Prior knowledge:
Layout lengths: L1 E5 L2 E3 L21 E3 L1 H15 L5 E8 L3 H11 L3 E6 L6 H15 L3 E5 L10 H9 L3 E11 L2 E8 L2 E8 L2 E5 L11 H8 L3 E4 L32 H10 L5
Parallel strand pairs: 1-4, 1-6, 4-5, 5-11, 6-10, 7-10
Antiparallel strand pairs: 2-3, 7-8, 8-9
Helix pairs in contact: 2-5, 3-4
The site of adenosine monophosphate has 22 residues, from α1, β4, α3, β6 and α4.
Function: The electron transfer flavoprotein serves as a specific electron acceptor for other dehydrogenases. It transfers the electrons to the main respiratory chain via ETF-ubiquinone oxidoreductase (ETF dehydrogenase).
Protein name: Electron transfer flavoprotein subunit beta
Cofactor: AMP
Amino acid sequence: MKILVPVKRVVDYNVKVRVKPDGSAVDIANVKMSMNPFDEIAVEEAVRLREAGVATEVIAVSCGVTQCQETLRTAMAIGADRAILVESTEELQPLAVAKILKALVDKEQPQLIILGKQAIDDDSNQTGQMLAALAGLPQATFASKVTVADGRVSVAREIDGGSETLSLTLPAVITTDLRLNEPRYVTLPNIMKAKKKPMETIKPADLGVDVTPRLKTLKVAEPPQRSAGVKVPDVKTLVEKLKTEAKVL
Ligand code: AMP
């Protein structure tokens, strides 16, 4: 069985993002970019399923600019077998990505599609759900445990105050939560091996997908600066201030 893993190139989670002076977007010029952390977990899970003999092939796919090739090479260094770059310089919103992925699902016929629960740049948490709807497939989001057996996949999901276990027929869409696994460290020999693995490049139009944005960003702003705190001499003053100024007591 094949597993398709969509991986997004995003601003590295250690980078403090800056907004462009005109407030139109986040400035990504000269900023370190990496694979979305939830997608690393998705690749790790898919590779573990292949190593366990459950899957036969793991295909990583990324939609975006040419540099997404680096993200795909990382996915292959973790252990994906091959990669597809759906190249586009346009802004790709979740619906456009979901349409591209739907076309690839039709073409590749994977039994599982494992996505991240959200991309840390747009925090949309939409693509997996939209893909499941477009492809008419069952979905289990926020997965913390995945078990494939007897033509079904059992997924433990993180929900408020606990965990819920779903059993889905295959093919199915899964999105990963943080506790699903801890991705392996990418070693130099595996980075070298990944350079030789196949990578196909196609355009959204080759899949018959129109990626025209549906949403317009009106303004992007930094969070307001926190104002400086004050020191109080004793508990009595603190309680007084909490009552009169903060009005929380
Ligand atoms: P989002 O709905 O934007 O929060 O993204 C959720 C997940 O969809 C990500 O963790 C990725 O697995 C996948 N995804 C979103 N955008 C892309 C993209 N441009 N290329 C590949 N996968 C993507």
